[in-house]
Backbone:
C-alpha cells in the first residue's frame, strides 16, 4: 500500500507485510516510542519488515500480554495437550483450570521474574536489600525496560517509567467490612 492508500487491514486482505502493519499502527501501538532497540534495527535494515506478517505468532496474549514466541521459546510453553494454539494463552476459565497449563498468568509472571533478575543482577534473591520503596521502584523500572527491550537502560527510559506510572492508578484498596453479615 502506498501512503495515499492507507486503510485498516480487512479480513479479506492477503500477504500484508510487517512493514505495512508497523507504519499503519505505530500511532496507536507506540512501537517507535517504546521499542527503541527495534526502531534501531528497522532503521539499519530497510528490508527487515518486508515479509508477510504472521500476526497470530507476533501478537501478545492474556492479561500479562506475553508474546506467543516468548511463551514458546523463552518459557518453553508446551501448550494444552501438545497443541500450541495462541488462543490458549488467553486467561479464560478453561485455560486457567487446574492441570490445563494455559493462560498468560504463570508464563508472564515467570518471564517478568527472569527479566527482573537479569536487569538487577546486584540484588540478592535470598536476601534482597530493598528497604527504601524507591529502590524497589527503580528495580522494577529496570526490569520492565529489560522486559521490553532486553536492555536495562536508565531510569529515564520511557517504557518502565510509563508502566510504573500506570500501575500507580491500580494500587490495592483495603477490604471494606461487609455491610451484611
Residues:
Amino acid at each position: 500500500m502506498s501512503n495515499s492508500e492507507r486503510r485498516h487491514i480487512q479480513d479479506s486482505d492477503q500477504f500484508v507485510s510487517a512493514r505495512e502493519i508497523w507504519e499503519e499502527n505505530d500511532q496507536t501501538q507506540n512501537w517507535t516510542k517504546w521499542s527503541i532497540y527495534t526502531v534501531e534495527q528497522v532503521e539499519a535494515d530497510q528490508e527487515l519488515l518486508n515479509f508477510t506478517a504472521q500476526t497470530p505468532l507476533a501478537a501478545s496474549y492474556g492479561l500479562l500480554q506475553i508474546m506467543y514466541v516468548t511463551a514458546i521459546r523463552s518459557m518453553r510453553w508446551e501448550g494444552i495437550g501438545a497443541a500450541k494454539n495462541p488462543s490458549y494463552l488467553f486467561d479464560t476459565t478453561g485455560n486457567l483450570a487446574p492441570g490445563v497449563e494455559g493462560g498468560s498468568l504463570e508464563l508472564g509472571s515467570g518471564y517478568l521474574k527472569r527479566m527482573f533478575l537479569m536487569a538487577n543482577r546486584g540484588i540478592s534473591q535470598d536476601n534482597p536489600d530493598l528497604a527504601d520503596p524507591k529502590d524497589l521502584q527503580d528495580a522494577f523500572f529496570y526490569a520492565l525496560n529489560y522486559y521490553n527491550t532486553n536492555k536495562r537502560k536508565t531510569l529515564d527510559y520511557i517504557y518502565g517509567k510509563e508502566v510504573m506510572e500506570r500501575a500507580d492508578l491500580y494500587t490495592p484498596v483495603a477490604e471494606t467490612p461487609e455491610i451484611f453479615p
